Amino acid sequence: MLTKFPGSKKPHSSLRRRILQGMLALPAAMLLSHSALAASTAEVNTTGLAVTDSTVKVGILHSVTGTMAISETGSVQAEKLAIDQINAMGGVLGRKIEFIQEDGASDWPTFAEKSKKLLVNDKVAAVFGCWTSASRKAVLPVFEQYNGMLYYPTFYEGLEESPNVIYTGQEATQQILAGIDWVVKEKGAKSFYLLGSDYIWPRTSNKIARKHIEKLGLKVVGEEYYPLGHTQFNSVINKIKLKKPDVIYAIVVGGSNVAFYKQLKAAGIDMTKEKPLVLTISVTEDEILGIGGENMVGAYASMKYFQSLDNDNNKKFVEAFKAKWGKDIVIGDVTQAAYLGPWLWKAAVEKAGSFDIDKIKAASPGIELTTAPEGYVKIHPNHHLWSKTRIGHAQLDGQYKVVYETKELMEPDPFPEGYQ
Amino acid sequence: MFADYSMAELTSIFAMQAFAGLILFSVFVLMALGLAIIFGQMGVINMAHGEFMILGAYITYLTSHIFSEYAQNLFDIYFFVAMILAFIVTFALGALVEWGLIRHLYKRPLDTLLATWGLSLILQQIYRSVFGAREVGVTLPDWLMGSVALSESIEIPINGLFVMGLTLIIAVGVALMMYRSRWGCQVRAVVQNRTMAGAVGINTEKVDRMTFALGCGIAGIAGSAFTMIGSTGPTSGQLYIVDTFLVVVFGGASSLLGTIASAFTISQAQSTMEFFLSGSMAKVLTLLVVVGILMLRPQGLFALKIRR
C-alpha cells in the first residue's frame, strides 16, 4: 500500500491532465450518489466509532502544558500537519479527518483519564499521542480494555509490544547498536563512559549499550545516573576527565541536557576535538534550540531522522512544516515520527477497507510508506517500524550533518535476546 | 579507585573537584539568598521564587537579542546590562506582587504558600504563552565561555568563577544593607517586633514591600547568571526550587549566616559524594543527612531568638 503526499510533482503528460480533469468532475458525481461511490458508513464502521458519511474523528493526546510541553509541542504540530495534508487529498475512505485535541498536562493519570474520554465518550477511530514512556504505560491498559488504536511517536526503551499500539519511533536496539558500531569502526573507540538521567529509558538503553560494548570486547569505564532536572554536572565531568574515556555516551534529558552541555564546554572539553567524543541518543534539533548550537557543536547523535536529511520527501516535508508553523521552527526525530502516525493509520484503514480497530490491527503489519521524510518505512508484525539509523554531526547552526546511515533497514526488536 | 593514576593527575583532579564544590556553593548561595531574605525577614514562603529567577533568565535572553540586533559591538558587555535589567524588572514585579497579593495574607502564612504557588503556575503559563513551550538558548559572549587553565591539567570553568565573584559581591552587598544601612536597621526592627517597630514610627508596610521586592530582585540576578550553566524554559525554575528550600530550611529560616553555612555544607557534601558515588545516590545521601540533622535541630543550623 503506497501513500502519496500532496504536491509530489511528476511530469504531467497530456493524458494525465485529461484524467485529472475527469477527476475534477468526481466530487459532483459523489454529491449525487454518495453511497454508490464511497463505501457506506455501516460497512466501514461496524463497531460504532465516530465515523459519519463525510467525517471521521481522531484524537490527539499530548502535553501542551507542564514540563513535557517542551518536547511534545513538535509532535502535535506534526500530527496536525499530516491531518491537514490528508484532508487536502480527500481524507480517508472519502471522509475528512476531524481531530479532538486533549491535554495530558505532563501528568500520567491525566493521560489515562483523557484517553478514556477519547475512546469511550468521543469514540475516536485512532489516537495520536503520548511522549514519555510513563504516559504510554499509563494509557496502555485503557487502550487495551476499550480496544483503541494508539500511534506512539517517541524513540523508547522497547520491552513492550501491544496490538493496540503502533510504535512509529525507534526502539532501543535500533537506535543504539548502529551508533556504537559506527563509533567503534570509524573512530576507533575503545572505552566508554555511560551517563544518563535516572529513569527507565536511559537505564534500559545503557544496559543494551553496555552489553553491546562488552560483546565487542571493549570497556565501559563508568556508568552513572543523575536525577531528572539535575543542574550541576561539574563533579561527574571531573570524574570523566580522570577516567579519560574515548566516548561519552550521554542520555541526559530535559533541562539537565542544557546544564550538562554548557558545563561540559565550560570545563574545557571541546567536543570538536573528539577527545573524548560525545555520542548521544537524546538530543534532537529541538533540544539544541535550548542548549545552543555553540555548546553542542562537534557532538554526534544516533537516531533515525535529522532535519537536514537530503531527499525529496524530506524537503517537501520541511517546506510544508515551515509554511504551516513558521520559518524558524526546527524538526527533530520525534516530530518526524509523529508525522508518520496519521499516514500509517490512513494506509491501514485503506488496506483494511474499514475503520474497525480489529481490522486495522490485522492490516497494519506489512504496510509501507515510501513517502516518509526519513525515507522508506514498513510496519513489522511486532508493530514497530523498520527504519534506517543515522549518525548526525552537530553543527554550529544547531543542525546535524548526516555523516553515516545504515545500508539496510534495522529490524525492530523490542525484546532483544542477550541484551536484557 | 585511585591506584591507576599518577600523583600529578590526582592532585589536579582534587583541585578541580574543590573548585566544583565552591562553584556549587556559590550557586546555592545565589539562589537561596533571595528566598532567605523573604522567608527569614517576613515569614512568607515564596513558592514562585524559581519563576522569578526564570524571569531574570528571560530578560537576559531578550537583552542578548536586542544587543545582537542593534549593538553588536557592545555584545561583550551585554551580560552586565542584562543583570541590571533583570534586577529592575523582578524587583518591580516583586513590589507589585507584594502590593496586590502578599500584604493581604500576612496574618495567614499558610495561605501565602498557596497564593505564591498559584502565582508560580500563572507565571509559568505566561512564559509558555509568550516565549513558547520550548527552552530558549541564551547566547553568551565569547569571554564567558570555556575555561582557564591554571596548570596543564587544572582547568577551571570561567562561568563558574563568574558566579563565584557575583555571589561574593551580592552577599557582601546584602550584608551591608542589612547591618549597616538605615533600611536594614528598620527591617531587623520589624522582624524582632512588628508592633513596637510600627509604634516608633517605622513604616512597616513599606519595609515589607522593599524586603519582598529585594528578595525577588536577587532571584532575578541569580536567574540571569544561571543562563550560563542551566536551561531557560517555562518550567526551569522548578529545577532550582527544591535545592533552594533545602538550603534555606537547613540553615535556619531567619539567619542569613545560616543560609551561607548550610549552602556550604550541602554543596560540599553533595559534590564530594557525587565524585565518589553516582549522582542519584549522592542526592539520596545528602537528603538523608539533612533530614537527620533537622530531626535533631528543627530550627536549622542557626536560629535567631525572636520575641513572638
Short description:
The complex is a heterodimer of chains A (420) and B (308). Chain A is an alpha/beta fold. Chain A is built from 15 helices and 15 strands.
Put simply, the count of helices of chain A is 15
- Could you tell me the mean pLDDT of chain B? 86
Query: What percent of residues of chain B adopt helix (DSSP H or I)?
Result: over 70%
Distance between the termini of chain B: 54 Å
Oligomer: heterodimer
- DSSP strand (E) fraction of chain B? under 5%
Total strand segments of chain B: 2
Taken as a percent bin, the fraction of beta residues of chain A is 15-25%
The biggest beta sheet of chain B, please? 2 strands, antiparallel
- Please state the average pLDDT score of chain A: 88
The poorly predicted ranges of chain A are 7-11, 28-37
Strand order of the largest sheet of chain A: 7-6-8-9-10-14-15
Q: Quick one: biggest sheet of chain A?
A: 7 strands, mixed
The CATH topology of the largest domain in chain A corresponds to Rossmann fold
What string gives the helices and strands of chain B in order?
HHHHEEHHHHHHH
Estimate nothing, just give the exact number of structural domains of chain A. Answer: 2
Q: Give unreliable regions of chain B as ranges.
A: none
Biggest interface goes to: A-B, 47 and 52 residues
- Per CATH, the class of the largest domain in chain A reads Alpha Beta
Structural description of this entry:
The complex is a heterodimer of chains A (420) and B (308). With 420 residues, chain A is an alpha/beta fold. Chain A folds into two domains: 14-29 and 39-169 and 310-386, Response regulator (Rossmann fold, 3-Layer(aba) Sandwich), CATH 3.40.50; 172-303 and 390-405, 3-Layer(aba) Sandwich (Rossmann fold), CATH 3.40.50. In chain A, 43% of the residues lie in helices and 18% in strands. Chain A is built from 15 helices and 15 strands. In chain A, helix 6 links the parallel strand 3 and strand 4 (150-152). In chain A, helix 4 runs parallel beside helix 14 (333-352), helix 10 packs across helix 11 (285-291) and helix 14 crosses helix 15. In chain B, a hairpin with a 5-residue loop joins strand 1 and strand 2 (155-157). Helix content of chain B is 72%, strand content 2%. Chain B has a domain at 25-142 and 154-235. Chain B has a two-stranded antiparallel sheet. With 308 residues, chain B is mostly helical. Chain B has eleven helices and two strands. The chains are: A alpha/beta (420), B mainly alpha (308). At the A-B interface, helix 4, strand 7, helix 9, helix 10 and helix 11 of A face helix 1, helix 5, helix 9, helix 10 and helix 11 of B.
